[in-house]
Amino acid sequence: MSEADASEGAPAGREIWIEKYRPESFEDIYGQEEIVERLRSYVERDDLPHLLFSGPAGVGKTTAATAIAREVYGDDWRNNFLELNASDERGIDVVRDRIKNFARSSFGGYDHRIIFLDEADSLTDDAQSALRRTMEQFSDNTRFILSCNYSSKIIDPIQSRCAVFRFSPLSDDAVRQQVEDIAAAEGIEVTEDGLDALVYAASGDMRRAINSLQAAATTGDVVDEEAVYLITSTARPEQIEEMVEAAIDGDFASARSQLETLLVDTGMAGGDVIDQLHRSAWEFDLDERTTVRLMERIGEADYRITAGANERVQLEALLASLAAEE
């Protein structure tokens, strides 16, 4: 039984939409067209190599892995597909025991089984070395699909044994299309402004877009811009721009007041403010020299917050430095 079938048996309103609408085949995947085409050719030629998927969260890495299993094994895919999350099971024992036991176990009718190791960049170096040897030992009857956020954290001997696929953040059109399809399927009215807000808040992350849609849909009959920004604790782009422009114009008190609104009233974390500043910096109506100066200040604040400094102090210092240079 598929995830969609399982979720249909759940009480109304309690389905998790990211699972209910998870694509089950290559045709259902939104975005990543070039990657999907290459993966489809592997399956059609029955020539599946070890694979390494890298990229940010919510862009289709896990979905692509399960779609491969469904295409290769059909209804029997669960018996020939082992999924492990390396962030929970990081030790070398997992590689030596669970993976080896699955790779050794007998199966009928197929040339190989698939082991999907999610968040593989969380594996220790020793575990990755053990995984490399396991990949060699069971290459005759097992294919590995590794998923990670940062391929640079995967040791070179593993990367050289895999076909590497780099998943990019999904396009706004891909996110918009799936959100529209889900809203239509669920009978939800989404305004054009609300749709724009969902796409903006998602920032290329389909999982975030779907979760935000489901959360916003519980607040009323219509999903509009206000509901989306409230649910996602995201500032409107114009709020961020007004805050920065006030600081650049030397009005530190006004900029600080707007920052206070974002942190207290909107409930944003300092890191979220930094992320939105970084995303929007080149869209502000600023000259190039000022934008470069802003990016430099954003980098400094981000580094200090990551190192454990107080978020509000660093953000106020960022605005103060912009105001002081005028």
UniProtKB/TrEMBL annotation:
SUPFAM superfamilies: P-loop containing nucleoside triphosphate hydrolases (SSF52540), post-AAA+ oligomerization domain-like (SSF48019). Residues 47-171 form the AAA+ ATPase domain. ATP binds at residues 55-62. InterPro entries: AAA+_ATPase, ATPase_AAA_core, DNA_pol3_clamp-load_cplx_C, DNA_Rep/Repair_Clamp_Loader, P-loop_NTPase, Rep_factor-C_ssu_arc, Rep_factorC_C, RFC_lid. It comes from the Archaea. Keywords: ATP-binding, DNA replication, Nucleotide-binding. One of its GO terms (cellular component) is DNA replication factor C complex. Belongs to the activator 1 small subunits family. RfcS subfamily. Part of the RFC clamp loader complex which loads the PCNA sliding clamp onto DNA. This is Replication factor C small subunit. The lineage of its organism: Archaea, Methanobacteriati, Methanobacteriota, Stenosarchaea group, Halobacteria.
